[in-house]
């Protein structure tokens, strides 16, 4: 069983329906049983908006969606819409594109997002690492985790490429989880990334989640990378499906 907890609609297809078909066929080809597709925070996007992603995957029992949102884009209205969708059980997470947009993860403007996440028991995902890395630097993520103890925070990309700094700073925050998407993107960095993961996964095996960033990164390469890690097989099972199922409340 593999859950890829970090996917986007792929580029290179003419419309949303063909993107969906490609994504589903790639999941099958790569042996991925369950996927979480993350929408953009934009109202129109090549990776799909909140509306697009709910509509597209409502008939796919093995594909769940997480909703992108931004304090800069129609915030109040999008929050209302998000609440409506969460009430209907349409999203399993909420994503903040810290760094891609000038959003600081510990900014007070994000309070309504954390409140919704707590109310509907879904995690808040945030981009971290390359691309204005200061927006979700580990110290800021730590502050956000402490300010929102009732929320689960998912740190996407683990502050890539500074993974060790991320784990060291955030290991004391029990409500922060680590999404491994895109960490195997650069084959040259894979050996050093593997070394860091082989050290930290056994320290907190319940807090790592497999993801590939499908749509931006190679899913097959990420699966091969994670399966080759030198960690106990129980921990590998946690990382490739058990933890995601629990953290996102999805059955596997
Ligand atoms: Zn992504």
Walk me through this protein's architecture.
- The chain is an alpha/beta fold and 252 residues long.
- The chain has one domain: Metal-dependent hydrolases (TIM Barrel), CATH 3.20.20.140.
- 40% of the residues lie in helices and 14% in strands.
- It contains 9 helices and 8 strands.
- Strands 1-2-3-4-5-6-7-8 form an 8-stranded parallel beta sheet.
- Strand 6, helix 6 and strand 7 form a beta-alpha-beta unit.
- Helix 3 packs parallel to helix 4 and helix 5 runs parallel beside helix 6.
- The longest helix is centred in the first third of the chain and has 15 residues.
- The chain is globular, with a radius of gyration of 17 Å.
- It starts with a strand and ends in a 5-residue tail after the last helix.
- The model has no long low-confidence stretch (mean pLDDT 97).
Instruction: Report helical residue fraction.
Output: 25-40%
In total, the number of strands is: 8
Structure ligands: zinc ion
Shape label = globular
Q: Helix/strand-derived class?
A: alpha/beta
Domains, number: 1
Mean pLDDT: 97
> Any idea what the CATH architecture is?
Alpha-Beta Barrel
Major sheet: arrangement of strands: 1-2-3-4-5-6-7-8
Rg, Å, rounded = 17 Å
H/E element order: EHEHEHEHEHEHEHEHH
| Largest sheet entry | 8 strands, parallel
Runs in which pLDDT lies below 50 for 5 or more consecutive residues are: none
Number of helices: 9
Q: CATH homologous superfamily name?
A: Metal-dependent hydrolases
